[in-house]
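TICKET: design request
STATUS: open
ATTACHED STRUCTURE:
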């Protein structure tokens, strides 16, 4: 067996199942889960119609690079959303959802024969970043978020020696779990570091279309263009239809950016067998070409968060995020130390049958702290009524909770 598999940590939901295995939830309440970030709004009819209208595509092998009309759908959306003009032949590639691409890009980029090969990622973080780095034979450097700066990653805490060993940097904006959006100044600093040390930036942007302010979140490619980096040197962005169009089961997204990196990525993917089926490609073309369902979806989240957030803010340290569909709340504590997020989640499940994800399971200890400790992540993915019911239960529980 690959010995690097032994370095992988159990996935957060596996750890949560182990931590709650002996708990019998209060049967007086129906179960409500705010734990998994799985979109549960209705799938757009245009996607379903595109699937049923293209079932003949099941009889042919799909090209790994995607059909021309699919790549043109990607670049058309990038033009409308960010004002960017990318070459559909060289600067975009289809992927089976952002998750598999975020993993496989590390296998493409990392050179494990270089001493000290390092991947830098934010902390807390989407666990795929870490697993991808470890299985590529790299070390991981974790960069803690700063609650005092809207959970911005403290990139300045990374020393020059670490940056010199860095081959790949993962960013996530809007962030999971914090919902923070990176401003242009942060991108400018990272581009300067990339130019100096030669590492690739992988920008995870799968939450970009769920936001609560009038101005949509800044994207990595958009930031590069604003700073005169129109060749997108050492930068690729990852996006997906899962959250934008409520189709997590479709497993469809794309990557865009530096043509040289994408050429190598295509070579890897050709051997890896990562081609989207023709039916999925047809459904994806339909989804990327329509914004009406995205606007309606965003309105549902805005209404939901507007109703739920004040209920929880009355008892917890939590605020409306910049974007995404998570609330990142601090649990009560009895002293200067963070509250016990695991204990809070366990007792909430036992007493009120509401599942949330302890923040400490989404992070690693770095610089002497676990930046997820003392917080819980709540995924407001269900309907408004169910999320509001969960919020009222959490509020009632918190009022009697003894840290």
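STATUS: resolved
RESOLUTION: sequence designed for all positions
ATTACHED SEQUENCE:
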């Amino acid at each position: 067996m690959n010995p690097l598999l032994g370095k992988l940590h159990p996935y957060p939901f596996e750890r949560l199942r182990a931590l709650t295995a002996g708990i019998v939830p209060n049967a007086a309440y129906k179960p409500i889960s705010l734990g998994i970030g799985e979109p549960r709004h209705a799938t757009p009819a245009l996607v379903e119609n595109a699937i049923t209208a293209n079932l003949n595509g099941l009889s042919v092998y799909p090209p790994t690079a995607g059909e021309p009309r699919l790549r043109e759908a990607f670049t058309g959306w990038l033009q409308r959303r960010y004002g960017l003009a990318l070459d559909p032949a060289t600067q975009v590639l289809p992927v089976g959802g952002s998750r598999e691409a975020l993993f496989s890009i590390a296998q493409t980029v990392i050179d494990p024969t270089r001493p000290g090969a390092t991947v830098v990622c934010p902390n807390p973080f989407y666990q795929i970043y870490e697993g991808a780095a470890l299985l590529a034979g790299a070390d991981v450097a974790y960069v803690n978020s700063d609650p005092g700066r809207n959970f911005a990653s403290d990139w300045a805490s990374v020393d020059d020696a670490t940056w010199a060993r860095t081959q790949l940097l993962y960013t996530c904006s809007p962030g999971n779990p914090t919902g923070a959006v990176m401003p242009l100044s942060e991108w400018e600093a990272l581009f300067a570091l990339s130019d100096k040390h030669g590492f690739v930036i992988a920008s995870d942007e799968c939450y970009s279309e769920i936001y609560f302010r009038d101005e949509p979140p800044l994207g990595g490619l958009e930031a590069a263009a604003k700073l005169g980096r129109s060749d997108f040197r050492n930068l690729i962005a990852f996006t997906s239809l899962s959250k934008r169009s409520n189709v997590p089961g479709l497993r469809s997204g794309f990557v865009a950016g530096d043509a040289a990196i994408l050429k190598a990525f295509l070579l890897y993917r050709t051997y890896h067998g990562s081609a989207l089926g023709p039916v999925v490609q047809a459904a994806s073309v339909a989804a990327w070409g329509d914004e009406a369902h995205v606007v309606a979806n965003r309105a549902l989240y805005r209404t939901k968060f507007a109703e739920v957030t004040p209920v929880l803010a009355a008892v917890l340290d939590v605020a409306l995020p910049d974007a995404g569909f998570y609330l990142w709340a601090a649990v009560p504590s009895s002293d200067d130390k963070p509250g016990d997020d695991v204990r809070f989640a366990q007792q909430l499940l036992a007493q009120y049958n509401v599942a949330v994800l302890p923040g400490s399971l989404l992070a690693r200890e770095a610089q002497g702290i676990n930046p997820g400790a003392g917080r819980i992540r709540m995924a407001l993915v269900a309907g408004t009524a169910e999320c509001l019911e969960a919020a009222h239960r959490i509020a009632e529980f918190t009022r009697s909770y003894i840290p």
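CLOSING REMARK: The chain has a mean pLDDT of 97. Residues 292-313 form the longest helix (22 residues).
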